[in-house]
Amino acid sequence: MQADRPKQYLLWGERTLIEHTLDRFLDQPGLRGLVVSLSATDDWWPALACANDSRITRAAGGRERADSVLNGLAALRELGAADNDWVLVHDAARPNLAETDLQRLLHTLADDPVGGLLAVPVRDTLKQVGSDGRVTATPDRALFWQAYTPQMFRLGALQQALTGALASGATITDEASAMEWAGQAPLLVEGRADNIKVTRPEDLEWLAHRPA
């Protein structure tokens, strides 16, 4: 991002990205606990008003995403969460999550035996390339979706999957991939393509033209 701070603390309007993101969840009637996994050296968080919100618990961030999520799950257990409770994992830098998408995810997965995630069908042509950078194949894009967040699974199952996958040395890029490693098939719930993860300066510029 070429920024002077972690990207979740960049401003969208008058508030940081992480504040907008947290707002998407704080007013949900079924919320029993909310955990933010942060680096021990994070000096930006204490300056935010939400750092003093009693509904938010801080957990230690880890070396990888999976480590941070596991720390967050452990914190939820300390708050009284049980194996069968639903947990949603969301990227702090996805502040444009639509309320309709969140409700669709919650409703669709309410009775699902596995859980799932918001995702968007791939729209552009995909190319498979070799080590020389040349195209080797054009896969059928109808078979591919982009994985977004929130990703929603039962606490116990997710904790077990993440722990087992990390111990095995598997490559885990999101919670769904850990569940897949454990032999489960997460359900894709189609969401809006504008639930973007702020990764590049142009992403923040795009947000700037939308009402915060």
TrEMBL record:
The alphabetized UniProt keywords are: Isoprene biosynthesis, Nucleotidyltransferase, Transferase
CDD domains, per this entry? Answer: CDP-ME_synthetase
| UniProt-annotated site: Positions MEP for the nucleophilic attack, residues | R141, K197
The molecular function GO annotations come to: nucleotidyltransferase activity
Q: Where is this site: Transition state stabilizer?
A: K7
Ranges in a coiled coil: none
Q: What is its EC number?
A: 2.7.7.60
Q: Which InterPro entries match?
A: IspD, IspD/TarI, IspD/TarI_cytidylyltransf_bact, ISPD_synthase_CS, Nucleotide-diphossugar_trans
Its pathway, per UniProt, is: Isoprenoid biosynthesis; isopentenyl diphosphate biosynthesis via DXP pathway; isopentenyl diphosphate from 1-deoxy-D-xylulose 5-phosphate: step 2/6
What stretches pass through the bilayer? none
- What does the record give as the reaction this protein catalyses? 2-C-methyl-D-erythritol 4-phosphate + CTP + H(+) = 4-CDP-2-C-methyl-D-erythritol + diphosphate
Function as written in the Swiss-Prot or TrEMBL entry: Catalyzes the formation of 4-diphosphocytidyl-2-C-methyl-D-erythritol from CTP and 2-C-methyl-D-erythritol 4-phosphate (MEP).
Family in the record: Belongs to the IspD/TarI cytidylyltransferase family. IspD subfamily.
Q: What is this protein called?
A: 2-C-methyl-D-erythritol 4-phosphate cytidylyltransferase
| Species of provenance | Halopseudomonas sabulinigri
User: What is the primary gene name for this protein?
Assistant: ispD
